Each structure stands twice: as C-alpha cells, then as structure tokens.
Amino acid sequence: MKQKKLFAALLCAVSSIAYAASDSLDEVVVTAARSEQSIGQTLLDTSVISQHDIAASGAADVSALLRNLAGVEVMQTGGIGSQSSLFLRGTNSTHTLVLLDGVRIGSATSGATALDQLMLDQIERIEVVRGNVSSLYGSEAIGGVVQIFTKRGKGEPKATVGAGYGTHATRRAIASFGGEVNDANFHLGVSKFATDGVSAINTALSPSANPDADGYDNTSLSARAGYAFNAAHRVEVSVFRSLGKVQTDNAWGLPTDLDESEATLSKWSLAAGNQLTEEWKSQLTLAQGEDDLVSRSNGTQTSAFKTVSDQLAWQNTLNVGEQGVALLGAERVKQKVSSNTAFTADARSTNSLLAGYTADYGVHQVQVNVRQDRYSDFGTANTGLLGYGLRATEGLRITASASSAFKAPTFNDMYYPLSWGYQGNPNLKPERARNLELGAHYRQDGQHLDGVLFQNRIRDLIVINGSWTTMENLDEAIIEGMELVYGIKRDALEIENALTLQSPRNARTGTQLPRRAQTLNTLTVARRFQDGRVGFEWRSSGARTDGFNSLAAYDVINLSAQWQFAPHLELTARVDNLLDQDYMLAHGYNTLGRTVWVGLNYR
Asked: Which residues are bridge partners to 328 per DSSP?
C-alpha cells in the first residue's frame, strides 16, 4: 500500500512539471527489444553507461560503474579482481544474464559470469535491462540482462595510449588504434592492470588466514573489424580475451598458505548482416564464449572448471507497416564442461525459437515477445512478455508489463559426482519467475524522471535439501520494490539520483535474502569546464545479512576529474572511498579503504 501511494504521488509530481519542449537527443539502445530503439521509447526499464560515462569516471572495472545504477548491488570478496556477485533487483547472483557483444560468456558449472574480470579499457558502452526478459534471451534473465559492448573503430583512424599509478602500487597501461577507412572499420586494443591490493580476508575475524596483501594482475585484448560490401550487406568479426590472476585467502588454511586463481574470459564472433529487402533485415552470428578458472594452493592445482559455449543465432527484423517491427529468430547453444571434477555429464545443447512485435500507434506503444527453449537434459521452457505504454503528455509516458522468465539448473546442480555423501540431482526443474511492473517516465528539456514499481515472484528455487545430500526445487522468493531515478542537465551541470526501495525475501519464512539491502541510493554530480570535468559520487546501502551475521549500512563517497591541458593530452584522477569508510560487502572480507589514482592519456 505504501508503494502504491508513493507511485501515485510520483505521477502527480511528474504530470505537474510536464511541458512542451521535447528531448530530441534520446540515446539508441538495442537490448530492450533486440532491435534499435531510443531509450525514451523502451517499455522495459533500461539504463545506459555510455563511452562518455566510462571515460569520465576513471574507474578500472565494470563493477565500479554498475554499482551506480538503480537496483544494482555488487558483492565482492576483497579488492579489484576478487570474486564478485551481481544482485539485480534483489534476485540471486545467477539470475542476471551477462552478454558480451551478444555472446554468452558465463560458467555452466557455477551459473554466474565473472564480471570481476572485465576491465573498462576495452568497453565502449553497457546497457542494463531490469526485469524478466527470458522471452528475449532465454535462461538466467530473471533479474534482467547486462549487455557489454566492446570498442569499435569510428571516424578517422587514431591511436590512444595511456598510463597511470595509484594506491597499493596500482598500475594501469592502455594502447589502442582504430577508425574507419572507406567501407571498413577496425579497432585493436590492449590493456594491463596490476595492483598489490589488500588482504582479502579480515584476519581479525579469521586469524588463520594469510595476512599478506592479495594482488591482482589483468591483461585484456580486444579486436574488431567490419566491412560493408554495399549499403545492404556487411560482415564483422570480433575477438576478446581477459586473463586475470588474483591472489586469494583461505579462512581455514595456514597463515603461510598462498592461494591464487587464474581466470580467463574470452569470446569470438563472426556476424553477417544483410538487408534482404527494403523491409527485411537479417543477421547470422556464429560465436563462442569461454570461461576458464584454475585455482591453486601453494603452487598445487586444487580445482579447474572450464565452460565452452558454442553459439549460432539467426535474427530477422521485419518492418510491418509504418508502426511496427516484427522479430523472428532461432538460436542454438552447445555447452561443454571440462574439469578435474568428474561430472556425470559434461555437455548439453539448447535449441531456441523466438518471436516478437513492437509497435508505436501514436500515443500507444506495445511490445510482445515469446520464446521457447528446448534443453537436451531437462526439457522445455516457454516464456513471454507483454508490455504497454501510453504517452499521457508530450513528455510523460506510463508503462506496464507482465513477463515470465526461467533459469536452467547448472552442471553443479545436476551432475556433480558423489562426494562426501553429496551429489547432483539430474531430475531438477528450472527455476521460474513472473514479473509485474508499472512505471512513469518523464523526459523533457534536459530532465528525466523514471519511477517503476515491480513485483517478481520466483518459484522452484534450487537449494540444498535438509539432509545436505543433494539439490532440490524447494524455495520460493518474492521481491517487491520501487526504483526512482531523477536526472537533470543544465548547461555544464549534470545531476542524477537513483533510489531503490525493495523487499527481497523468502516467500515461506519472510526472511530477507542474504547480502541484499532494502534501501540503495546513489547520487552523482558532475560539472564540466572548458578543458575538463569534475565528478562526485555518493553511494549508500542499507543493512544486510550474510548467513548468521549482519552487515551494517554504509556510505561511500568517490571523486573523479579530467583535465585536457594540451590538444592531445588528458590528465585523469579518481579518489575512491574518500572518507576511508570501513565496511563489508561480504562477512569476513575486506574492502578497499581510501585509494587515489592518477593517469595520463594521449588521444
């Protein structure tokens, strides 16, 4: 009831400030409907982190920027590069699908994607769609989709080099070259990031852990090239690879133990886009994503898990009259697992069919999506989405949607071999969810205001049974909440505040889901000058639980700055955790205190 009153007040407030001048600079996104839309037309709750945002932040990794978005929480077991978990709208860490240029790069054993291994130097933009979107993308998209796009060449060919240094002996170097030549475009980039870090585990809580600093070293490479034979036919090839080496701690080991892991994320893709007729555009994509994790203790390998996902997709968009666009597609994904653990099955395949329709009938908008995924091991999952939008005034839209989603059981869930009385359960069903949303969106004259109410019910959650012998579909969760985002651009000033109020809880016991807060808020302020920019971030989180332990609420303030002091030279600086707050994202694990970073770029 309280949320309904808040939403009604929001509608009144937005209506009272709506006026005539429209915002003609809407950013184009592709993730919310798998086709191009301006962000002011999307019916699904969508955020964009642009190349401008990435460059201005001075941040090192993807997680640092995702934390600033509404509905996003990132948990990390130590400093940069340590294992992280993304909670989108209070859902589990395995309930968000992460795509890299449209390619799945996640682990089929853990069910998660190693976002902690994605540095920002190779990234051009990030699109985040919140809510059930399995009807567009299949498994995992219960909380939403994070799609990350690598850099591509634009304009006259040019080179960029940069380097910097910061707290904890943090070093960073980048080099890239790319652009357009006649009908071809290309980009090649390489980056290096290394830091001595801090001790991952808090030794005051775990005295047996090694107290030394746990460092991180990452080398990333991306390459992308495209060629247009003519206005109707184009091919593009892209390659990405991230190799991260992270030192970790073991709370139950010896103080002298040296634990480390080596994580590799990679993908390649080959795509052919063809305008077959004036109304029919087709794209055929062949791709492979890979997640490879090897862990060692004192130089001896302790575990190895590798997932290779071969993917083939054919997507067709057809203009239907002047108002609508139809989507038809087919996909096949084959996952292969190799490990020092002898899983009872090591491969499975998925065949998928999808269809959709988006249309704009004057003041009315509609989006319909349906999808069927046929798995070789557990059967079929059908999902759908129905969205509606009403332009109440020139700048105000009201949106509503109902959708369903699912998450396939992982190889750990189904095929883990008998060990210490425990083994996987091949009879598991997929986790399933239903989501309802109601939103109000105002966008005019440099201002935007987005308020969304959501309710996500998730059933057949996969958890370990009472005797700790196998996994079963036992739990249910319900997540209700509200997101309110207001932003304004006035001359050289940019301000945005993202507030999330949510109640992620076990539907049977009523207990709050672990590591998820009920209140999240981020305020960002930026001021541009003739030759530079300064930025301010204030991120706040409410209290959380972690097992039998409580995690206190926290506030973190970050600063950033850019100064172009010569035609091709730019100085960047960033201060994280300005007030040196001592807080925990996961019980027993340290976070970074105050850190300072200074870099120099030649463009």
From this structure: 316, 355
Nearest to residue 125, comparing CAs of 218, 31, 53, 177? 53
DSSP-assigned letters across all residues of 126-173: EEEEES--HHHH-TTTTSEEEEEEE----SS-EEEEEEEEEGGGEEEE
Supply φ then ψ for residue 81, to 5 degrees. 90, -15
The size of the chain, in residues, is 603
DSSP string, 230-296: SSSEEEEEEEEEEEEEEEE--TTS-TT--EEEEEEEEEEEEEEEEE-SSSEEEEEEEEEEEEEEEEE
What is the Cα gyration radius of the chain?
24
Least confident range of 111-115, 256-260, 322-326, 520-524:
256-260
Q: Which fold has domain 2-602?
A: Maltoporin; Chain A (2.40.170)
Nearest-angstrom CA–CA distance, 359 and 317: 13
Q: How far apart are CA 597 and CA 167, in angstroms?
A: 7
Which pLDDT belongs to residue 83?
93
Domain residue limits, the chain: 2-602
Name the burial class of residue 117, with classes exposed (0-12), middle (13-18) and buried (19+) by CB atoms within 10 angstroms of its CB.
buried
Please state, in angstroms and as integers, the Cα–Cα distance from residue 175 to each residue in 39, 89, 159, 190, following that order.
32, 36, 7, 6
Q: Which run of H or E residues covers position 63? A: helix 62-66
Query: Three-state DSSP class for 4?
Result: helix
Condensed to tens digits (0 to 9), the pLDDT of residues 47-57 reads 999 999 999 99
Do 220 and 119 contact (CB within 8 A), yes or no?
A: yes
pLDDT tens-digit readout, 353-376: 999 999 999 999 999 999 999 999
Count CB atoms within 10 A of the CB of residue 71: 26
- Report the DSSP pairing between strands 144-150 and 28-29: unpaired
Question: What average pLDDT is seen over the chain?
Answer: 93
